[in-house]
Design goal:
2 domains; about 45% helix; TIM Barrel; about 15% strand; 11 strands; single chain; alpha/beta; two-stranded antiparallel sheet
Length: about 325
């Protein structure tokens, strides 16, 4: 059965707002959660960017959901510190946390260093980081000299069960790369065949039989035009090519790059609708494509409305009640 989760966007809302919505999402029937991990928002219109690792502890305490995030141990985080953060969450909340590693974005990393490494170098660091993190979670002492340095690093608090180590990819080339080192894949909703081509490459690269997760960008509102307008206002910059997304260093740069993106352009990338039955059909299609977990990100600012409508009219059409799961209904 596909698990349907709520995505908390730190770029758009304060941490306190997101915590309230995460608890509301659990009450509404969402089965899991994830959040973004950004130093800066994509655009100034989004306007926020709380620290994900502080928030994750609060979200895990305030709900019974599992939570994870996509992070990049490039410049902003040393891999040993991310391993410690993940180990602490996994020790406190066994089986409820995961972390995904991706090759990073200049908007989150470049403020620390005037050199932004090319993608191949960032990917090499991620592979080295994944290996070091697994060894640290297993209780090993790690000395590493490569794209980063660790000298006799050891975690004194380790979890009984290590977190799931997921790989983030949005292209077939990255999907194949993730397949050789990750326990699972997370990708994003893309038009045409691009999304499933990334999944196929992950499986061909070593990910056959491993879980696949989807972060699905939707926009719900009472009217179709309102839903599309909200998506255009908040998320138009995010439909840029993934290579461009990784290289633009500031929110103002994203705004300039997205200046000529129209609502029709956005409609090709973000599923916007006022009809709950259409949202339910989209979610059902992700199940049919084989996704094990789907985290829905309502890109508009109307989070309370989105959670309420999904809880009343969308999720009940997809998530069996306990009686139905037992075969008695």
């Amino acid at each position: 059965m596909t698990v349907f989760g709520y995505h908390a966007s730190h770029e758009q809302f304060t941490p306190s707002q997101l915590l309230a919505w995460a608890t509301a999402a659990e009450r509404a029937g969402f089965q899991a959660g994830m959040c973004s991990d950004h130093y800066a928002p994509w655009t100034n219109r989004q306007g926020e960017s709380g620290f994900a690792w502080s928030w994750l502890g609060a979200a895990l305490q305030a709900t019974t959901l599992s939570f994870g995030t996509v992070t990049a141990p490039i410049d902003r985080y040393h891999p040993v510190i991310i391993a410690q953060a993940c180990a602490t969450l996994a020790e406190m909340y066994p089986g409820r946390s995961w972390v995904a590693l991706g090759s990073g974005l200049a908007v989150n990393e470049r403020f620390l260093d005037d050199r932004w490494p090319p993608k191949w170098e960032r990917q090499l660091r991620i592979e080295e980081a994944a290996d070091a993190m697994r060894r640290l979670w297993a209780g090993e002492t790690v000395t590493h000299r490569g794209t980063f340095t660790a000298e006799e690093a050891v975690l004194y608090t380790t979890p009984a069960e290590p977190p799931l180590l997921v790989g983030a990819a949005v292209s077939p080339a990255s999907g194949q790369w993730v397949g050789r080192w990750a326990d699972a894949l997370i990708t994003i909703l893309q038009p045409g065949d691009a999304m499933m081509e990334t999944v196929a490459a992950f499986r061909e690269g070593g990910g056959e039989g491993k879980p696949i997760f989807l972060q699905a960008q939707h926009s719900y509102a009472a009217q179709d035009e309102e839903a599309l307008a909200a998506a255009h206002d908040q998320w138009s910059a995010n439909i840029l090519d993934s290579a461009a997304l990784a290289e633009i260093p500031t929110p103002s740069g994203f705004e300039a790059a997205a200046a000529y993106i129209s609502r029709q352009d956005v409609a090709g990338h973000i599923r916007a609708s006022s009809r709950p039955e259409e949202h339910a059909a989209w979610l059902r299609s992700y199940t049919e494509l084989g996704f094990d977990r789907v985290y829905i990100h309502n890109v508009g600012r109307n989070q309370a409305e989105f959670i309420d409508v999904y809880g009343r009219e969308v999720l009940p059409a997809l998530i069996p009640t306990p009686a139905k799961r037992a075969g008695s209904g």
